[in-house]
Amino acid sequence: MKKINHQIENGFRNAGSSQQPNQSLCGHGSGSFPDLGHARPARHRCLRGGRLVHGRGRFRHPCIFFGVDARKRPNPDEWKLGFPDLESYKAEWLRQADEFGTTEFAEDARAAIFNATRLVDIDIEGARAIARKKFDGRIRKADGGEDRLLWQTLYYCVRKDGRWKICGFTGYLPNPLGAAS
After folding, report:
1. Hey, which residues does 110 pair with through a beta bridge?
2. Which residue of 54, 66, 144, 159 shows the fewest CB atoms closer than 10 Å?
3. Strand 80-83 vs strand 117-125: parallel, antiparallel, or unpaired?
């Protein structure tokens, strides 16, 4: 197993500079999640009837994306299949993005998010990988409060056509794992 312990290369970069427009997490369609969680996703059109549509509408393979919500709890018995498909994840992500967009901050929120985020460990085995993204920081609000960022996410990735794609994740894990937040 190859382990990378430095800033991500070959497709995983902060701010999403390596992701091409019109690529979805599964590598098809027109959605875009360029930086593993900070960019607003565009419309995703690859799903029809639970299968991936590619080319002239012919079915190529199932879109396997799903996400587990650990609910910031250390006990896996309490985790939920929070996002059974990309559309459910997109809907929740957009809801959170809208809520975030209406909040007034006392500092540059984007800079605070990037300062709180670490994506440095990736285990690669052939065409599969696990990327570990950890959040530990705060964003000061204009009203004197703060948003505490303290969780971690495991991204399950596959290499397709020379590029790494996210095919699922376990998110909102306690950071560090084993500690309740």
Report:
1. none
2. 144
3. unpaired
In this structure, are residues 114 and 137 in contact, taking their beta carbons and an 8 Å threshold? Answer: no
Backbone φ and ψ for 51, nearest 5 degrees, come out as -125, 155
Residues 6 or more apart whose Cβ sits within 8 Å of residue 72: 151, 172, 173, 174, 180, 181
User: DSSP secondary structure string, the chain?
Assistant: -EEEESS--SS--GGGTTPPTT--TTS-SS---TTSSSSPP-----EETTEEEETTTEE-S----EEEE-TT-S-GGG-EEEESSHHHHHHHHHHHHHHHHT--BSS-HHHHHHHHEEEEEEEEETTEEEEEEEEEEEEEBTTS-EEEEEEEEEEEEEEETTEEEEEEEEEEE-SSTTS--
C-alpha angle 107/20/22, rounded to 5°? 100
Specify the amino acid at residue 141.
K
For residue 168, with 0-12 CB atoms within 10 Å meaning exposed, 13-18 middle and 19 or more buried, which class applies?
buried
